[in-house]
Amino acid sequence: MTKQVVYIISIVLLLSVMTGGCRKKLDDLYYDPDQTVQPSIEKFFTEMLNNDRVRPSYWNIRTFVAMHTGIYTQSLGYLNTTTAYQQNAGYCQDRWNDFYRPGAAANGGNGGIMAHYRLIESLYESLKDEQQKLNAGVFLMAAKVVLYDQASQIVDLWGDIPFSQAGTVSTSGDIVYAAFDNASNIYDVMLDGLKNAALYFSSAQLSTAVHASFGKQDILLNGQFDKWQRYANSIRLRLLMRLSFVNEEKAKAEALNIINNPGLYPLIDGASGYVPASTDVLLQPLSNYVDDLHNALSEVFNYSAPDYMLNTVMKPANDPRIPVLFDKYGRTDGDQFIPNTDYNGLPVSFNAEQQQVNLGRYAILDSATFLFNSKLPGIVITAPEVNFLKAEAWERWGGGDAQAAYETAVRQSIAFYFYLNNISSSTRTPVSSPATAAIDSFLQNDQMKYTGTVNQKLAKIWIQKWLHFGFLQSVQGWAEYRRTKYPVLQFYPSTLPGYELPPSRLVYPSSETSYNTNYATVKDRDVRTGRIFWDVK
């Protein structure tokens, strides 16, 4: 395949990802053909991983999390303005775009998961030499895991999405607008694909040179096959539990098979010892990154400690994570700063004016852990989440020690947030981790202790998982909140007609409603009160 042909295919693939509005400059998308001998699978794979929708970048937190999922989950404080629950069309278009095609980081994120995957797939299929194809297979299989992980989030936000045809071209090279795939069917494809990918990484045998090449390009897991296997199995477990109320038979059989056979299906669970930096799947910031989140969270007053999380869940239990999640803050009276004497979340029952004039009287997100920490990684999946999933599965269906999994998850969550505090680039002295005895005592608190009915135990699992997700993983938090209906949050009703409460799904962006002729097949279901297929409780 010549340089010119590969370049043309690359550009056509990018253009065919059915996104209509706000086009990024083509000059920013890919390599200059006069300077590049051959676009490579390896480089496209690295670009696929380099995703500012995974990292807590300014743009992602400011325009998507702080205005949408952080509010819908109450994992951030926010002002009860009349438009608080109204979806921002432009910012959601950006979020959609950044999955389907790559863009300049300055315009919201690089990513382009689907476009990069189709390029990798196309180049892989064009290989004629069997050894080259064998060597390239590791990049294709890892790319599939990333695609399915990211695509599941788009499904969880919107429902039916263009998937199987997205990024493809017709035999004539014409742009083809992709059909909307059924969300449940997409889940089936992803579950099968993740199972196959995990199997591949459990037994793949590649030369030292190929393994080294993969490790060099793999900025997520540094070429660790064992970690890729665990990543694929863990995302599969997440998706199985996500659909467990709509297809319990399938979820029960497959989830229990995974968690009860760790030798065959190793997970990101910290079973051999939990060290967040090496156990969890985290996308580290680039070496030249110096920004932080204080502007992203202060520009729309989202830095306040959320009411339910702090006041109802954490304070009554004397949660040891409070000092690394929040600052007490304070207010200025004349020339004097008056610090608050306790941690208190901004009341969600206040109207916007009451909230704004009283901001200084309430706690805020911790400055070292969150606001001024340029070392925050992008969180893909962590051991605490996996152990909460195991706890839920065993509590509902038996076969394992649900209490042990729950307590392990809470202990790991504490360790995780102290880790984020301790890697901070802030000048504040890191907070010392709590002693084991203190955590033991915390777990025996009436609010935390694993006692009660099955439903009461499940509620504890789900609330603690929601707390662990926080705003950094509020996309996952929103999905789980809708699936489980926990925690039971109260929202201040907006007076804007049609937007009184948060939505149960995002409506499609204008690129689809205006340009994709296949939109007619989903138009009747494109309402903010619609439900994703797994949302049946």
- Spans with pLDDT under 50 lasting ≥5 residues? 1-37
Strand order across the biggest sheet? 1-2
Q: State the secondary-structure class.
A: mainly alpha
**What fraction of residues sit in β-strands?**
under 5%
Walk me through this protein's architecture.
InterPro entries: SusD-like_2, TPR-like_helical_dom_sf. It holds the Pfam family SusD-like_2. This is SusD/RagB family nutrient-binding outer membrane lipoprotein. The protein is mostly helical. It has a single domain, classed as Serine Threonine Protein Phosphatase 5, Tetratricopeptide repeat (Alpha Horseshoe). The chain contains 22 helices and eight strands. The chain has helices at residues 3-15, 41-49, 58-72, 89-100, 113-126, 130-158, 183-203, 208-217, 225-242, 248-259, 276-279, 294-298, 307-314, 322-325, 352-357, 367-371, 383-397, 402-422, 436-443, 454-469, 474-484, 510-515; strands spanning 161-162, 180-181, 281-283, 326-327, 330-333, 336-339, 364-365, 378-381. A two-stranded antiparallel sheet has the order 1-2. Strands 3-8 form a two-stranded antiparallel ribbon. α1 (3-15) packs antiparallel against α5 and α9 (225-242) packs antiparallel against α10 (248-259). It is globular, with a radius of gyration of 23 Å. The N and C termini lie far apart (52 Å).
Helix and strand layout, with pairings?
Blueprint: H1 3-15, H2 41-49, H3 58-72, H4 89-100, H5 113-126, H6 130-158, E1 161-162, E2 180-181, H7 183-203, H8 208-217, H9 225-242, H10 248-259, H11 276-279, E3 281-283, H12 294-298, H13 307-314, H14 322-325, E4 326-327, E5 330-333, E6 336-339, H15 352-357, E7 364-365, H16 367-371, E8 378-381, H17 383-397, H18 402-422, H19 436-443, H20 454-469, H21 474-484, H22 510-515
Helix pairs in contact: 1-5, 2-5, 2-6, 3-21, 5-6, 6-7, 6-9, 7-9, 9-10, 10-17, 17-18, 17-20, 18-20, 20-21
